[in-house]
Each structure stands twice: as C-alpha cells, then as structure tokens.
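Whiteboard transcription, Tuesday session. T.W. wrote the structure tokens on the left side:
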C-alpha cells in the first residue's frame, strides 16, 4: 500500500481519481494546486503523482518541473492527467520531466494500469 498524490483544482476530478486509487489498494493524498503539491510530495513521500495541467497559480507543467528539480522529490514518477493532449502538449510534458500523460476524460483502467506500471 502506497501513498499516491492527486493534484487537481477540480474537487470532482480529485475524488474520482481518489476512488480509483483506493480501489487499487493505495492511499490517495490530495492537493488542489502546485504549491500544495510540492509540500504534500515532501511530507507524504508518494510513490506516484497524478497531476492536472490547467490549474490556477503554478500550472501542472511548472509543478512537474519543480518536482523533478527538487532533490527530495525528483525520483517520484509524475503522470499528467489533462485535457491538454496534443502532440505539442505531450512533447512539453516530456520536456518538464513527466513520466507519462493520461488524457481527460480518463478511464479507471488507464489509472489502474498507470499505478501498476509505477508502483511496485
């Protein structure tokens, strides 16, 4: 059982992701913006981060870059869950250090598969 950080400014999306994480046998930890995400990533040591891109303040790309450049959090896999899934968005996600991208609307299977892939 691992902590999985879910970062999204939309409470509904956080809860939907949280249900999938819980049913996969893990503990969802929530943040609603980039600065909360950085603090929670340091305090809860998640095995994986699901990160929305379109958020107020620091967006998901900026938050991903911050997570991947911080020595405490750089080893945590970050998967963007976003409506922004054009080829240029995917390219930009990789440039920020994202380990994957799941387009919204997501399916529970796509989330479960991603958990299986990254959480050992």
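and on the right, the sequence the group agreed on:
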């Amino acid at each position: 059982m691992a902590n999985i950080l879910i970062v999204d400014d939309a409470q509904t999306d956080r809860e939907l992701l949280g249900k999938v994480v819980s049913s996969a046998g893990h503990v969802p930890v929530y943040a609603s913006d980039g600065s909360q995400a950085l603090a929670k990533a340091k305090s809860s040591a998640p095995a994986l981060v699901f990160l929305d891109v379109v958020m107020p303040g620091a967006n998901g790309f900026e938050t991903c870059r911050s997570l991947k450049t911080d020595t405490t959090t750089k080893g945590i896999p970050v998967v963007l869950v976003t409506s922004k899934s054009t080829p240029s968005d995917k390219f930009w996600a990789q440039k920020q250090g994202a380990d994957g991208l799941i387009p919204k609307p997501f399916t529970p299977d796509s989330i479960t598969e991603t958990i299986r892939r990254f959480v050992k």
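Someone added at the bottom: The chain has one domain: 3-118.
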